[in-house]
Design goal:
Number of domains of chain A: 3
CATH superfamily of the largest domain in chain A: Response regulator
Helix content of chain A: 40-55%
Strand content of chain A: 5-15%
Number of strands of chain A: 12
Order of helices and strands of chain A: HHHHEHHEHEHEEHEHEHEHEEHEE
CATH topology of the largest domain in chain A: Rossmann fold
CATH class of the largest domain in chain A: Alpha Beta
Strand order of the largest sheet of chain A: 2-1-3-4-5-11
Largest sheet of chain A: 6 strands, parallel
Largest interface: A-B, 63 and 63 residues
CATH architecture of the largest domain in chain A: 3-Layer(aba) Sandwich
Oligomer: homodimer
Chain lengths: ~350, ~350
DNA sequence: CTGAAAGCGCTTACAG
DNA sequence: CTGAAAGCGCTTACAG
């Protein structure tokens, strides 16, 4: 037992075959499809393997199978941010569970220094799940060029791109409707900015949510042009959520409610506001999106939209494995839409 | 461009060789060691490769090299907890950076359903870094049996186990000394409990930190036997940090200071205390350990011990690559000790 | 039920 | 500088 190389070689399939007296074929079957050999052969082989501590070399197996037995998850943000976003982590957990039950591995692919394309081309995976903003055309194309299947979560559903989403437009409508119903008319909306990719601002969930907000706003005669409605952007981090508060407070008419597209950003706001002497919800209300666990830990609890994050991962992964198993064009339904609901806590007050 | 299989085959080294008119050997050299072929050969080959979109199949390459080009990081907690621990994530970031600069991949290995051993035996990695509690003998042995090198972070330095640590005993002494110097004599200490493995409680950083605390306590005539000193355990999660507060408040003598071994737990405490009507630091002080970014976001800021988390990852990875490059017994220094320092904010008050 | 043999796509001594 | 060839350890049609 030492941290350094011990140079004893591992046993190979040849060793097991020789010692057990059976062929390599039989040894392979013993591990992968025991029904194809006799009970006795299997027992003997597995016994020998056991004593020699043998198990098939995964690298050789993958090479032979021409399969990585791994699926990739293209993260929307750098690792350190993605890791700190519980919503994303829930999605990861869901994907991970399915991968594990399928004997696959989950490879996280961060958008490394602007060369997502390179990552996509070379990642050791058989298929990919793309999260959010990253689901743009350029990425989709380069995965397509590689010839592996993929599914998008929070992307732009389209003919060619299988997807898992909630009804973002409706969800945004629901929360904005509740905010307005509580009497708020001076509102700051904080959208998600995205440093990695470009088109996302005018497509995808951002756009759909903005539409949902607008629909609710119009019902009370407001609009993005109204002087009481201002729109900001923030990266999806607590730190940026804090900073955006400072920007919000520079505008002439102080909003009575901050509507965010992410709990993480909302939490940033709730941490910053009291430092500036504003109490939530007495002086200002805040609402979030996602319903991550942490929304229970804020004081007051955060009113938000619940979405089934882990479930999104699970369904995306299942969809992907279904595609991986398919031979040709018999694709089933390639779009999944999950339900959402509002979670009312105390960060939103009547006004 | 479609989410489904396109069945066009990738070009192989044979295609490039045939089309360029050079041998497979030459093609391989063009990618891996251009100095071994002529300028002209290299240009031609790379040109052909470019037009065919060829790059060496990583799976075949790894198989041929008998190397995964990946190093494993054995996490101390389940994925969802590890991901939410910024200290761990900093370590991951450090390891990741070094891996990337070495053209390697980082594989995170969670302690899946108690079968760490199985994970360790089969993980597709060339070497491993073990974090914290997981660095026990059983694990070390099974990695050793596999014959790959490893390094422990926050483990138990020993002859056989290369390690990266801070001086945990001294760090614990330092913070406890400061607490006592501020006049506190009624103290709750919260150690790290660990569901995954057994021996950790009496070994490793836990033990060393307890020793450091004790040394400081003794200087003012206190001891773990003293009625004013109580010791609790908490898993390293915000949720558990919150819960431990409730347990602390059941004891007859209410502590004036809570000394934790992790900022995450300290933050849990700071979130729970005001809910029970106790203000920090007026009614009760809290100190942490690690100095994660989030300690700046608590109100008041958290007094804690800074440790160079990312640096730990960087150095552990470098050490590992050095071992990987070594032939035999010429190991250099296999133990690294990094500096720590106190960070004084406002969560600790005079009493 | 069993086994000989081809094949997966690279790398790399070795000989020229 | 160049190339023919062995080898990495599996899987799996195929023939018996």
């Amino acid at each position: 037992m030492t941290g350094h190389h011990s140079l004893k070689k591992r046993a190979t399939i040849n060793d097991i075959a020789r010692i057990s007296g059976y062929s390599k074929t039989a040894v392979s079957f013993a591990f992968n499809d025991p029904s194809r050999i006799s009970r006795q052969a299997c027992d003997t082989i597995l016994g020998v393997a056991e004593t020699l501590g043998y198990y098939p070399d995964p690298l050789a197996r993958k090479f032979s199978l021409q399969r990585h037995e791994s699926i990739g998850f293209l993260l929307p943000q750098e690792l350190r941010f993605s890791f700190r976003n519980p919503y994303i982590m829930q999605v990861v957990e869901g994907i991970g569970d399915v991968c594990q039950e399928r004997g696959n591995t989950l490879t996280l692919i961060p958008p490394l220094n602007a060369s997502v394309i390179a990552a996509v081309r070379t990642a050791a995976v058989d298929a990919m799940i793309i999260q959010g903003m990253s689901a743009n055309m350029e990425i989709a194309e380069s995965i397509g060029r590689r010839g592996i299947p993929f599914v998008s979560i929070d992307g732009i559903p389209s003919e060619e791109m299988p997807s898992v989403n909630i009804d973002d437009r409706q969800a945004a409508y629901d929360i904005m409707h509740t905010v307005l119903e509580s009497g708020h008319r001076e509102i700051a909306i904080i959208g998600l900015s995205d440093v990695s990719y470009e088109r996302s601002a005018t497509e995808g969930i951002q756009k759909r949510r903005m539409e949902g907000y607008l629909e609710a706003l119009r019902e009370v005669g407001l609009d993005y042009g109204s002087p009481s409605i201002t729109v900001f952007k923030s990266e999806c981090t607590v730190a940026q959520g804090r900073q955006v508060v400072d920007r919000i407070l520079t505008i002439p008419r102080r909003p009575t409610c901050i509507v965010t597209m992410s709990d993480i950003v909302a939490i940033g706001c709730m941490l910053r506001l009291p430092e500036l002497g504003l109490r939530v919800p007495r002086d200002i209300s805040v609402v979030g999106f996602d319903n991550i666990d942490e929304t229970n830990y804020t004081l007051p609890g955060l009113t938000t939209v619940h979405q089934p994050s882990k479930e999104k991962g699970v369904l995306a992964a299942r969809l992907l494995f279904r595609m991986l198993g398919q031979t040709g064009e018999d694709r089933g339904d390639i779009h999944v839409r999950l339900p959402h609901h509002l979670v009312i806590r105390d960060s939103l007050s009547r006004v």
